Structures are given as C-alpha cells and as structure tokens.
Amino acid sequence: MPLALLALAVGAFGLGTTEFVMMGLLPEIAAGNEVSIPTAGHLISGYALGVVIGAPALTAVGARLPRKTMLLGTMALFTASNLVSALAPNHETLLATRVLAGLPHGTFFGVGAVVAASLVAREHRAKAVSMMFAGLTLANVVGVPLGTLLGQQVGWRWTFVMVGLVGAAALVSVAALVPRQPAPRDAGMRRELGAFRRPQVWLALGIVTFGFGGTFACFSYITPMMTDVAGYDAGSVTWLLALFGVGMTIGNLLGGRLADRALMPSLYGFLAGLALMLGLFAFTAHDKVLAAVTIFLIGVTGFAAGPTVQTLILDRAEGAPSLAAASIQSAFNIANAIGAYLGGLVISVGLGLTAPNLVGAGLAVVGLGIAVVSGVLARRENAREGGGPTPSEGDGSTGAELPAAPAGGFGERATSPIGR
C-alpha cells in the first residue's frame, strides 16, 4: 500500500479524536467555562453542525482545485481551529471554534477517499479507503482515551493542543507523501451537484443514515447500559469503549478487503450482522461477559460497512465523486443525531435502557432494505445496458468504468479518472 495512505490515516486519526473526545470531557469543560453539562453538550452538536454544513459547502467551492490542495487546506483549517479552541476564553467562543473545526471534516474524508482509491489498482480500492479510515477507528482506541485522560489530569485545553499537534503532523505528512495531482478535468460545482440527480447516490446516503443510525442508537447510551444493566463500575467503561474501538478497527479493515471481492453481498452481510448483534444486545446486556463480546461484535459489523459504502458512492457518482463522498460524512452525523434521538425517546417513555438496541436493530434493517433496493436497481440498469456482472452479483468489481491505477506510492501519480 502507498505511504500516502498513512498520511491520510493520520489526518483521519485527528478528526476522529476531536469528534469523539468531547463526550469524555464534558464535566471538565462545563466546570471550566461555568456552564451546565447539557449546555456544554452543545459543543458536540456544534461540531456535528459544522460537518453537515462544511462537507457539501467546502467540497463544492473547492471542486476546481487540485485534490492535494484541498486536503492541505482542510487540514490547515482543522489544525488552526483546534489550537484556537485551546485558547477560547468562554463557552461561546469555544462553541464557535467547534463549529469551525467541524467544517473541514467531511471534505477531508470525501476528497481523501477519492485520492486513496486513485492510488491503487481498481481491485484494491475498498482496501485503500479502509486504510485511511483506520485512522478514524484507531482514534477511538487510542486518541479518545488518551485525550480524555489528558484533559482530566492536566486540563481540557491541553486536549485541543494535542489534537492540533496531530493535525500539524497530518499536514506535514500529506504535503510530503501524497503525490501531486492536477485539478479534476471539467470539474465544477454544477458537475459535482449533478451527481445528486442519480437515485443511486441518494440510496447510498440512505444506507449510511439508517445503517449507522442503528449503531448510534446503541452507542449513545452505552455507558448507562453497561453500568446500570450489565453491572460494570464506572471505571470499566473506558476499556469497554476501547473494546468497541478495536471492533471498529477490525471491522473497517475486514470490510475493505471483502468489499473488493464482492461489494454488494458484503454490504448486505454487514448490515444483516449489525441488525442481529443489536437485537441480541437487548438480551446479552444483562450479562457482563456476553455484553462485552456483543459490544465488540457491534463495532465489527457496524463499521465494516464504512469502506463498503464509501466505495459504493464513488461508483454511483460516476465521474463527480468528491461532493458525493464528502456528503457521506454529513449523512453519518445525521445518523448520529437520529440514532441518539430515537434511542433516548424509547428510554424516556419507559421502555428501559436496553430498548435503544431494538431501535438500532430496526434502523439497521431499514438500511439493509435500502441496500437491497440499490442492488436490484443496479442489476436492472446493467441489464438494460447489456453489461456484465454487477457488484451486487458478487464479482468483486465496483461497477465503475475505471482503468486500473498504478499501485504507486510516493512520487507516483494516479491515472484513474477519480484521481485527477
């Protein structure tokens, strides 16, 4: 695999750390800024709002720029925003910097996925995308626990300094390792927006919204489930979250490899597995050992779909992939909001702390249904055009008309259309 993928993974690590570390630092930040914990929770929503707005906006505005320039620009904005967050004098300023830090999130992942796929031969694209996203999953294993510990022991401002330094390292790595790529030919906002005229792009976004919404319905309430239902003490939650992160990492890498062999069948399997695990968790949450095992498996099945869907939308966007790929991150954050809201709703009406798992299972089934519809439509379209096997038939291809790119590393330029 090209070294450029390592640079992209470092950036993903920083983005993943700053997105999720806030959940562990709310008490410290609330006390430091003299606000309530629910008010401090707006910092999480503010970052998500930045992602939802920034992913399509920045990608569309920068559509004519070389993709390496986009990566450097978004990572520079991310780094500066986190360093400014460390100096924020009050809650209002910190909230503004959190929104600002979220703006480049989706664009970096969207453009990064396109660049990652362009660096390798066609049959290894999903694996390459998964290597970049490994940085995001590893953030939950290393970055978030380390950032939380640093914030609790030294002060929350130092957590933002740490994330800013990771961003600076990613900036240098991208500059040094990602090969120069010219601006996409015939690129522009109109061309990128044109991808959204294709129903398949909306179906892919729907898969993310409901499939990952199922994961977040569970994950948002994992702490009270583990302490009040499974019987773990509060101090054990950190390693349980790390176990979930390990499952995410394994699932992400596994998903990339299987998706290169059979894209749609892999996606069907991951979503079905996620629905099954979430449904089981409503019952296994009452036992410490079974609960821990199920948490790990939810991480595996839930995030195995990540590189699969990202590769799917690269295909469905047909020559204008950057904005569509970036919009995956907007859908991901919408999934977070929907899952957390519905999970909290069933708890509030008295259905119990394990009820969000059943909501999650239902959302995953909806995501699976959308995936099946997408696969059926792809087969019909291919049949009308007289083409060969489609991804949903398990041939391992992605269905895009792309020549094989070189498996090049540093200094080599991709020749695939999505890499230009």
Keywords:
mainly alpha, globular
Instruction: Specify the helix fraction band.
Output: over 70%
SSE order: HHHHHHHHHHHHHHHH
Class inferred from helices and paired strands = mainly alpha
Based on Cα principal axes, name the global outline: globular
Averaged pLDDT: 82
Strand content: under 5%
Query: Kindly, what is the distance between the CA atoms of the first and last residues, rounded to a whole number of angstroms?
Result: 19 Å
Biggest sheet record: none
Q: What is the tally of helical segments?
A: 16
User: How large, in whole angstroms, is the Cα Rg?
Assistant: 20 Å
Low-confidence runs of at least 5 consecutive residues: 389-420
SS elements, strand count: 0
Characterise this structure.
Helices cover 76% and strands 0% of the residues. The chain has 16 helices and no strands. Helix 6 runs antiparallel to helix 7 (125-153) and helix 10 (199-219) packs parallel to helix 15. The radius of gyration is 20 Å and the shape is globular.
Could you write a compact summary of the structure shown?
This protein has 420 residues and is mainly α. It is 76% helix and 0% strand.
Which helices and strands appear, and what pairs or packs with what?
Layout: H1 4-20, H2 22-33, H3 37-40, H4 42-61, H5 67-85, H6 91-118, H7 125-153, H8 156-177, H9 189-194, H10 199-219, H11 222-229, H12 237-261, H13 263-284, H14 288-316, H15 321-348, H16 355-385
Helix pairs in contact: 1-6, 1-7, 1-8, 2-7, 4-6, 4-15, 5-6, 5-8, 6-7, 6-15, 7-8, 7-12, 7-14, 10-13, 10-14, 10-15, 10-16, 12-13, 12-14, 13-14, 13-16, 14-15, 15-16
